[in-house]
Amino acid sequence: MPEKRNRTARLPARQHGRDRPRLSGHPLLLREKQKAKRFYRLRERQFRNLFGKASRVPATPGEGLLRLLELRLDNVVYRLGPQVRGPRRVSSSCTATSE
To answer: How would you write the pLDDT of the chain (99 residues) with one tens digit per residue?
Structure first.
């Protein structure tokens, strides 16, 4: 009978946590969705409503969703930089007028 070798004997030395399995399918999609929600500071209901609007746009839903997320007023104020404190507070209290 062949001799059973220790599994660690044939693996190179690594950092801790390197043997994590790669995500694929639903877990990967869920992680990306959570990442987008955190990046744009949205709750699930807001995200779902925006995705519904994006799916009705003629472009692909992913591109439409990113476009709608980038056009949100609180995101635009946030992108202006650190001189503006509290983008949600500013965007909710300002009154935009178009002439």
So the answer is: 556 655 555 656 666 656 667 778 898 889 989 998 998 889 999 999 999 999 998 888 888 998 998 888 888 877 777 665 566 666 666 655 544
Angle (nearest 5°) at CA 40 between 71 and 81: 75
Top-level class of domain 28-92: mainly alpha
Domain boundaries, the chain: 28-92
pTM, 2 dp = 0.58
> CA 49, CA 30: separation in Å to the nearest integer?
17
Helices (H), 40-86: 44-55, 61-71, 73-80
Residues 56, 62, 64, 69: is their CA dihedral positive or negative? Answer: positive
Which helix (H) or strand (E) is 28 found in, with range? helix 26-39
